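Translate sequence into structure tokens.
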Amino acid sequence: MNNAQQDKHRQVGMNCHAISCSCRPLMTIVAILILVFGALLLAQQVIRRAKGAETPKSPAKTPTKTDPYQWKSMFDGKTLKGWKVPKFGGEGDVLVKDGTIILEMGDSITGITWTGKLPKIDYEVELKGMRVDGNDFFATTTFPVGDKPCSLVVGGWGGPVVGLSCIDYYDAGDNITTQFLDFKKGKWYQVRIRVTKTKIEAWIDKEKVVDLLTKDRHISIRDEVDLCRPFGIASWCTKAALRDIRIRKLKPQEAKPKPESKK
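Result follows.
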């Protein structure tokens, strides 16, 4: 190898050495960055685990208990779900319209009967009724008093009679509960009935129309409303509208007999 070739190889070696030396600081920096990045990732994982350990677990949700004494709706405002339409003979059509149950005028009685569960004692029921057309009862309600049926007649005997049928074999037109009210066509009336072990009470709007101690009383119904048992609402030769039908069990303190006032 001549001197020129030796000088060339010597120059190449020096260049490689120079390149190698210049790359070492860059590699060191890259290595440091990798270590720092790895440390940051590890730190984030530690922080996340620590936060997870500090966050208390949500306690298991306790199922919400339904109040057994709250009002329960008996009409959904859309269908006759829970009701059946008895075939009395000569009855009018029954339909749901604009959130109300319509009892069309028939040749005799038209009504609906509840098919669901029902308390027999210590309960109260409410509904709103309207006499749309006709001149007889429009929201007569048959209900249980223990194992016996009874009816609150609303607007019977040509329009004004309110009372229980039957008490001691006498119907609402001629017994201890008979009253007379002026019912207007096209007006809503709230009917409320309360039954306890000792009493039947009833209100039309805010007026109390029945306050009957049931001890030693014979309680029954007229044959015409037999298909409304155990709970039903009916009209007689009258077009009626019904809505806001609901029922609830009485709380023990509500059902407890109240002492009679001393005279």
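Note: The CA atoms of residues 113 and 232 lie 4 Å apart.
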